[in-house]
Design brief:
This protein is an alpha+beta fold. Helices cover about 55% and strands about 20% of the residues. Keywords: Membrane, Transmembrane, Transmembrane helix.
Length: about 90
């Protein structure tokens, strides 16, 4: 007795039939524009910078830590976006 599986596409929902059992899987189509993608990142960086002012002096945070956080977040966002494009095209 082997493991048999086949898939049926019905619009947004895919149904998997495995050995006579039905497993519905709903696919989510995520459509992001620039504002929806960057807004959570800006909020996270802002909250982290404000939280760090309780530990360090504000001049140190805003002159040294915040620029490095922004540069790192831009690089990570760009690499994540390119990885997502690669995964979507494969």
């Amino acid at each position: 007795m082997g493991f048999r599986s086949h898939r049926v596409n019905t619009g947004f929902q895919q149904i998997y039939f495995v050995n006579g059992f039905v497993y519905p899987v709903t696919t989510v189509h995520m459509e992001f524009d620039f504002v929806r993608s960057v807004a959570p990142l800006v909020v996270i960086v802002a909250v982290a910078a404000i939280a760090l002012t309780t530990v360090m002096t504000s001049s140190t945070v805003f002159m040294m830590v915040l620029p490095s956080m922004i540069i790192f977040s831009v690089i990570a966002f760009f690499l994540g976006m390119k990885h997502g494009e690669f995964r979507a095209s494969a």
